[in-house]
Amino acid sequence: xxxxxxxxxxxxxxxxxxxxxxxxxxxxxxxxxxxxxxxxxxxxxxxxxxxxxxxxxxxxxxxxxxxxxx
Length: 70
Known about the structure:
Structural class: mainly alpha
Radius of gyration: 21 Å
Strand content: under 5%
Order of helices and strands: HH
Largest sheet: none
Shape: flat
Low-confidence stretches: none
Number of strands: 0
Mean pLDDT: 83
């Protein structure tokens, strides 16, 4: 378990370093605003999908629950 946490820490460190380098390069190019808008749109789409999935699961669980108790 300890070995896994070391590998996870190293992976996260490399991942964050890569993101930091990418964002620094975007800042130097001057297109940080476009990146932020794109991230906001992607986040909104993912949130919409999650809410729709939650509604479908809730409907399914409610209908199956009534069949189990009925």
